[in-house]
Amino acid sequence: MKKPLSLQEMKEWRTREADAGRPSSFADLCRAFGLCVTCLGGGVTYNDNGLGFKVVGMDGDTQLFEQCPVCGGTGMLQSSGTQNPTQGQNV
Ligand SMILES: [Zn+2]
Asked: pTM for the full model?
């Protein structure tokens, strides 16, 4: 699963938005780029304490993480149909 943005691009976006006086939190970035806000585009569920991801098992030496229930593990914002009504475009 390819991420649409590199860490560097995210940093640049946040700096640019902050400089412009616009919301520049990670959640804002996710919305702007259509990433799942719940898992922040990672496709897996964060631990309840916010540190790392929720591990549901092991596959050999590889940790298996819980798939994000909101986006189904895609890391992308899900919307029913082509338009997201919460974005308020041409309602
Ligand atoms: Zn998600």
From this structure: 0.61
